[in-house]
Amino acid sequence: MNTSNKSYKELAIPYFKQAFDIIDEIMIAQMVPYYLIGASAIALELLKNGVKPSRGTKDIDFAVMISSMEEYETISECLQKKGFNKVKAPWTFYAPQYDVVIDILPFGEVEEKDIEIFNKRYSDLHVLGFKEVLEESNEVRIEEKIANIPPLPGMVILKLVAWSDRPEERENDLADILKIICHYFDHNYDEIVEFHHDTFPEETFDEILIAAEVLGRKAKKYLLKSPPLNERIISVMDQNLMKESESKIAIEWARIMDWEVGYTFSVLNAFEKGMNS
Prior knowledge:
Blueprint: E1 2-6, H1 8-11, H2 16-30, E2 34-37, H3 38-46, E3 59-65, H4 69-81, E4 85-86, E5 92-95, E6 100-107, H5 110-113, H6 115-121, H7 130-134, E7 138-142, E8 145-149, H8 152-165, H9 171-187, H10 189-195, H11 207-225, H12 227-241, H13 248-257, H14 261-276
Parallel strand pairs: 1-7, 3-6
Antiparallel strand pairs: 2-3, 4-5, 5-6, 7-8
Helix pairs in contact: 2-4, 8-9, 8-11, 8-12, 9-11, 9-13, 11-12, 11-14, 13-14
């Protein structure tokens, strides 16, 4: 566990403390394991190295490990009693008093035991990879609370899955992945130097390419746990590495950073190289 104490002010997400306190209270009362995921989790993890959040968000995402839809209904009722209203998507809740939106994404045994109901009720919700990634969550202290968050390589995988589900709606996922890649070398410097020095090129030294390859290596373990997850990620990579000029990921990364598409395409190639090592 990271023992450094980060503050809500540093996280710079409006009303994060109020929303997090409510979620924490409910999940402890219901004895439900829960995890902070998404952009908020990335921001909190990178704060360890002093990286400030690059964009604010009113959306806070949580994953909850449950065994039945009855458990989820209880959580929903508790949230509504705390002032969170249900909106169009059945996993999304809005608190008008804070102007905060939270997603409560169920995973775990519910995917197996109530699969028929789960699929009908949550036809647009995909939790592929949650179980594999969150098995190795990290604890990060934020003031008096402990947040369980996915490791950064796991976040990359979850973001790739989310983006591939609805690429037209989730452009921020690619920006979040790129942010992880851009900061990963400094964030994990000691481990990279000690255990992944073979990724250092003989000629031009490039921290971003090294970071992408190491992230691919570390992401590989999640893919080995789940054939469906492996198939999805391989498909995403194949589609985006067929042709540089048609790679949606490389093109979007180039737009975000004002880099050449050829370079962002090489970053994506480095990630795949790591996956295949």
